[in-house]
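Hi there. Long-time user, first ticket. I'm pasting a complex I've been working with (about 571 residues overall). I'd like to know whether the download I got is complete or cut off, because the file seemed smaller than I expected. Thanks.
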Amino acid sequence: MSQMGTAYVVGDNIDTDLIIPARYLNTIDPAELGRHCFEDLDPEFAKSRSSAKGREGVVVVAGRNFGCGSSREHAPISLKAAGVQCVIAKSFARIFFRNAVNIGLPVMQCEEAAEVAASGDEIQFDLFPGTIRNLKRGEAYSAKPLPESMREIYSSGGLMNYVKRRMAERS
Amino acid sequence: MTVTKIDLLLANDITAPIAIDELEKAGIDAVHDPSGAVFVADHMVPAKDIDAANLCVKMRAFARRHGITLYEGGWGGIEHALLPEEGLVAPGMFVVGADSHTCTYGAVGCFATGVGSTDFAAALALGELWFRVPESMRLTFNGSIGGGLMGKDLILNAIGRIGVDGATYRAMEFEGKAIGELSMDGRLTMCNMAIEAGAKSGIIAPDSKTADYVRARSRRPFQTYASGPDAQYVETVEFDVTGMEPQVALPHSPGNVRPVSEVAGTEVDQVVIGSCTNGRMEDMRIAARILKGRAVREGLRCIIIPATHGIYLRALGEGLIEAFARAKAIVSTPTCGPCLGMHMGVLGEGEVALSTTNRNFIGRMGHRSSKVYLASPATAAATAVEGKVADPRRYLQGAW
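Hi, the file is complete. Here it is re-exported in full:
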């Protein structure tokens, strides 16, 4: 099933402190974390998400090593709560990538799509089979395929649903 | 792809609460093996505000209900200093922690890696987790470590060379004569920062120093492993540490590394000596050696944080705490606080810190316009004395 969003382009090595500063880690409330998403990178980003127009979907398009740094799951939670539909990047840091998959935030690795997108481009994406369309540019790209285990987690609706199923199988 | 049984699971006051919520939402009220999991309250402690206190309340209640050991206050310290000190990690173990710096335990010969809260919750429920087997990358450190050089300098130099994604998804194996010379504390510092190059784990093959360290702390039998002669490495990088200068990572990346001589003289408002990277005994001793009988430059705050209560007590016994206090440094109870701009030394607008911690991202220690330089405890102590970034070697003449 394909989804849509407007590209919001960021650079290389966007770390988890930039996604959600540690000073907000005294809460685990998604709405509160969403209000501070990218605050130290772009103080306007989180503010713009609270307006009616801003609530339309965003696709974050990033360079290399997106989500590097801490293991804080608050980072993908904050992105999701801020209305981010998907993160497309040239490459991801390992822990962020797992965390995003586990909570059902779509993440797609695609060098080409990330290279050419500009903020404001309309992006259509389909996690399975991993296709990305940049409607503004009229181009289509293929993301790096996800390993089978990650596909299973996504299609279960997140890791905890998968765990519940495993536990039921055991008992 | 492999599903692996886990020998020890770890979470802290930031990551455990989300895991607890995830388990509750999923209606799972069973822990596979409570004796194979530990909680450590270290990031926001002593509770920095009501919200932080409430997260600890949640973690305590869960730990009590399920029989999981929770370390805090005088029984605890910063997780990655505490677990090796308590003898909870030993060679051959598979350790998974909901904290990116879990890779620290590679220094005692564990395969140790960081995950997020939901992975931790899954592992707590199932006792196992799926992993991709990482490719190995070998970093060989040739030569001899000169006076004033520490594990921190070696790892900063390595990250500067390979880049902050130079080891993404890989296991970094540190070896060579210089690694053999390093103390266990220095090795723990090196493996701690493997994540700063994107690695899944850092590891050092156990030797007699490792065995002595572990046997002094644990009665747990252990099995050591080393890479065989036919081991496959995706990349080998060689370093020569002979004559290497102390290293400094400039704002805003742990990969933006220069020799100290290129940064010396940069004015600094605050020095922090501590964290899971550099709050161990060797770090306290070298800082005291430089600060004893001297004073922190007026106008600069020097915050020293022994990483565990045990280290605090030893530092007290050796007279280090008094030396710090007399030198006008301030000494805190163990906490991660300032490393992540949480509390106990948050930076204001435009302020500059030199810190022995592990990350200097934008806003990491406070205001988004503040700046952080990363260096060893020796460089940090010399910087505290001079009020600007300083080469520690002139304070460390002779044997050390």
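A couple of notes from our side: Residues 3-144 of chain A form a domain with the Aconitase; domain 4 fold (CATH 3.20.19.10). The mean pLDDT of chain A is 94.
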